[in-house]
């Protein structure tokens, strides 16, 4: 494994807290990266995204040895 990435909505604190408990690093904050709903005028409702990442070397240095 070289790298793991994840993206989540900044308003979804359970999601980003889970990623941080799993030791992924917050690498970016992207504004208006996508939309999933439209407003009453039919215009898209854009949302922001947190980007997280974890390198394989970071993961393996944290992992406990198998006994």
TrEMBL record:
Q: What is this protein called?
A: Acetyltransferase (GNAT) domain-containing protein
